[in-house]
Structure prediction request, 117 residues.
Amino acid sequence: MLIADDEPDMRVLIGHVLRAAGIEVVAEATTSDEAIDFWREFRPDVIVLDQRMPPTTGVEVAGTILADDPSVVILLFSAAVDNEIRTAATSAGIAECVSKENVFDIPAIAQAHLDRR
Prediction:
């Protein structure tokens, strides 16, 4: 799994939650450019993208990745998950939006989407 979040504390928390669930984290990105580079290098099955990914957004990063490989499961992680973000995420092909308050649900959500493939 690839984690992309510009907040160091949040990356650490997500990584801890994933590793505690037995999920391998192959890379942690701090920018949208790093996220795309790490995706190209490691080709993880699942990516957790923060919506706020300087210099662009998680939705834009997802669009770039999914244009190359629509089978990647992308979870958009955001402090504010509203209808506007959900609509943009769905249009980009993002599997699911997850509020930052639901960080502990990420392993189960990711696994559910992988099981559907």
